[in-house]
Amino acid sequence: MKKVALIIKIVISITLIYIVARRIDFSHFSEAWHKINIWYMLGAYILLIISMIVNSIKWWELLKVQGIKKPLKNITSHYLVGYFFNNFLTGAGEVKRIYDLSKETGKSHGVVASVFMERWTGIICQVTMAVIALGWAYKEIPELHTVLIVCGSLFLILLVIFLIAGKVSYIPFIDRFKPLHQWLETFRESYDEYMKKPGALVLAFALSLVPPIMLIFIHWLITLGLGYDVSLWVFVLFIPIISVFSQIPVSMNGIGVQEILFVELFKMVGVPPQIAFSVSILSHILKMAVGAIGGIIYLLRKEHGQLTQNEEDAKKSDVKVGKTGKVFES
User: Fold this and answer.
1) N- or C-end of the chain: fewer Cβ atoms within 10 A?
2) Phi first, then psi: what are they for 326, rounded to 5°?
3) Contact (Cβ atoms closer than 8 angstroms) between residue 298 and residue 84
4) What is the pLDDT of residues 305-315, one digit of tens each?
5) Is 229 in a helix, a strand, or coil?
6) Structure confidence at residue 74 (pLDDT)
7) Residue 249 and residue 246: Cα distance in Å, rounded?
8) Residue 256: which region, alpha, beta or left (left: phi > 0; alpha: psi -120 to 50)?
C-alpha cells in the first residue's frame, strides 16, 4: 500500500512539473541560469541552515517538558537526519525522528507528543502568516479570494486538531484495544504536560516565527541571485501561502505543487514563468544540499552502530569461549 501511495505521488509530481514546463520558454530559462550569482545562493543556503538549527532548538525545548534531556547537538543531528528523509517523502522525517529518539530514550509517548507539538506550532504560524498576508493583499489581488478561504479553513482545522489531539484516548470502544488504549493514555498525559507549562508553548510559537521569515528571505535571495529584482513584499505575501500548500502530502515532497504555485502566484505581479520556476527548482536544490548534511550524519551513525554491534558480538563470543575453558592465544 505504501509503495502504491509513493508511486501515485511520483506520478502527480511528474504530471504537475510537465504542466508547468509547457508554459516556459526554455531559451530564457537557460539564460536566467547562466546569470546565477553564487554569493546570493550561499547566503540563502546559510539562512536555511540557521532555520534548521532554530527548529532543532524548538524541538529541544519541547523535549525538556517531557523530561527528555539530551544535548542540543544530539537533537540537532536527529532533526537533520529527519530533514534528509523528508526530502524523499513528506512526513518520513518525522517518523524517522520519532523512531530513532524513542529507541534511544525509551519514551515513545513523550517523543511523539514533542514532534506533534513541534510540527503543529510551525504549521499554525505559517498558516497564520498566510492568512494575514492574504487579508492584507486581498483588495489589490481579488483573485486570491479562494486561497484566503482555504487558508482560513485550514487554520480552523488546525485549531480543532490541537484541541482534540489530547483526547484521542477517550474515543468510544478504544479501551477494548488495551495496548493501544494504554499507549494513548500515556500520550495524553505527555500532551497535557504542555497545557501545564504554557511558557514552553509561548517559546515554541516564538521560535516558530523564525523559519517562515527566513524562508521569505531565502527565496528573495534566490531571485536576486538569478538577476531578477522583485519587491521583498511580494515574497512576504506569497511564500507563506506556497509553504503551507506545498506541505500537503499529495506529491513527492511538494515537488510539482510548489512549482505550480510559484508560477501562478508570481504571474499575478508580472514575474516571468521561467524566473518563478527557476526560483522553485533552486529552492529544492538548496533543501537537498542541507538534507545532505543529515544524510552524512545518518551514514556515519549507521556505520558507528555497525561497529558497535560488531564489538558487542566479539565480546559475547569471548564470553562463550571462556566458559568452555578453551582459550587460544596467538
Assistant:
1) C
2) -105, 90
3) yes
4) 644 444 455 45
5) coil
6) 93
7) 8
8) left
Alpha carbons 236 and 255: distance in angstroms, whole number: 21
| Dihedral sign for Cα atoms in the order 213, 216, 217, 218 | positive
Nearest-5° angle of CA 199, CA 52, CA 75?
Answer: 70
Inform me whether the pLDDT recorded for 83 exceeds 60.
yes
Amino acid at 330: S
What tens digit of pLDDT does each residue of 119-132 get?
888 888 888 887 78
Q: Please, are residues 187 and 168 in contact by the beta-carbon 8 Å criterion?
A: yes
Round to whole Å and give the CA distance between 149 and 146.
Answer: 5
Taking the CB of residue 151, how many other CB atoms lie within 10 A of it? 24
Give CA–CA dist 239/49, Å, rounded.
Answer: 18
Check residue 232 and report its DSSP letter: H
Q: What gap in Å lies between CA 131 and CA 150, rounded to an integer?
A: 9
Q: Are residues 192 and 43 in contact, defined by beta-carbon separation less than 8 angstroms?
A: no
CB-side neighbour CA atoms (13 Å) of 158: 19
- Radius of gyration of the chain from its Cα atoms, rounded to whole angstroms: 23
Specify the residue for cell string 482534540. Answer: 164
Q: How confident is the model at residue 162 (pLDDT cuts 50, 70, 90)?
A: low
pLDDT higher than threshold 80 for residue 71: yes
Element (H, E) at 239: helix 232-246
Q: Which of 36, 39, 73, 43 is nearest to 57 (CA)?
A: 73
Predicted TM-score (pTM) of this structure: 0.80
Q: Which three cell numbers stand for residue 277?
A: 520556476
Q: Which residues lie below 8 Å from residue 277, measured CB to CB, with a gap of 6+?
A: 20, 21, 24, 29, 259, 262, 263
CB atoms within 10 A of CB 236: 18
- CB distance 214 to 48 below 8 Å: yes
Selection from 98, 102, 143 nearest residue 118 by Cα: 98
Quote the cell numbers at residue 169: 484516548
